[in-house]
C-alpha cells in the first residue's frame, strides 16, 4: 500500500502515468494464482477509481 506522500504526489497532476510492476514466483502450489488474481483485481480497481 503506498504511503500518504506517494498518494499526494500522484494526485498533484505532475505525472501523466503511473506504472506498477510485480513478480509472482510459481513455487509449485496453487497459492500464486490467487495472489496474482488479487493483484490484478487491485490494479484494475485503482485504475477505475482514479480520475481520468
UniProtKB/TrEMBL annotation:
Pfam families xrefs: DMRL_synthase
A GO MF label: transferase activity
Pathway(s) annotated for this protein in UniProt: Cofactor biosynthesis; riboflavin biosynthesis
Bilayer-crossing regions: none
Tagged with keyword Acyltransferase: no
Alphabetized InterPro entries for the sequence: LS/RS, LS/RS_sf
GO biological process, one term: riboflavin biosynthetic process
Keywords recorded for this protein, A-Z: Riboflavin biosynthesis, Transferase
Gene Ontology cellular component annotations, sorted alphabetically: riboflavin synthase complex
Family per similarity comment: Belongs to the DMRL synthase family.
Name the UniProt record assigns to this protein: 6,7-dimethyl-8-ribityllumazine synthase
Species per Swiss-Prot/TrEMBL record: Noviherbaspirillum galbum
Amino acid at each position: 500500500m503506498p504511503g500518504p506522500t506517494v498518494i499526494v504526489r500522484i494526485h498533484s497532476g505532475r505525472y501523466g502515468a503511473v506504472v506498477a510492476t510485480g513478480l509472482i514466483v510459481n513455487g509449485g502450489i496453487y497459492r500464486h494464482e490467487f495472489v496474482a488474481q488479487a493483484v490484478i483485481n487491485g490494479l484494475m480497481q485503482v485504475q477505475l477509481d482514479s480520475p481520468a
